[in-house]
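Q: Could you predict the 3D structure of TonB C-terminal domain-containing protein?
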Amino acid sequence: MIVLAALIGAPSDGEARPAAGVPERERRTEKLTPNRWVAMVVTRITQAGGTTAAGDPGGTVTIRVRIGIDGTLEGAAVEESSGSPALDGRALEAAKAAAPFAPPPEKLLTLEGFTELSFSVEFARSGTARP
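A: Sure. Here are the predicted structure tokens for TonB C-terminal domain-containing protein:
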């Protein structure tokens, strides 16, 4: 597995704050349940993947993302390749484009102050990316 980026320090008062660029509707959400937060992250990354161009191969990429206490994307890696370097790269670029996210629920954080998710992103031939 590719080593992910180093942990970004938490605010000095220990409170999680949304990273700059988090959409207002996510900042207003007082507390997302762990399931809703994970669904929101997967949906945003999948939507950021966009559509494949005519003639592009479809495929499924499994990625792992590391998200900090404040919602910043600290790293992304391909866990299982689609077999297409172009699609693998698109999945990683989608993760970067979708960030930052709302801060993760406390239940999902490690003692070091981050969470990691692993999920598949399916790129349909000449269609959209799907979780």
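Q: Anything worth pointing out?
A: The mean pLDDT is 80.
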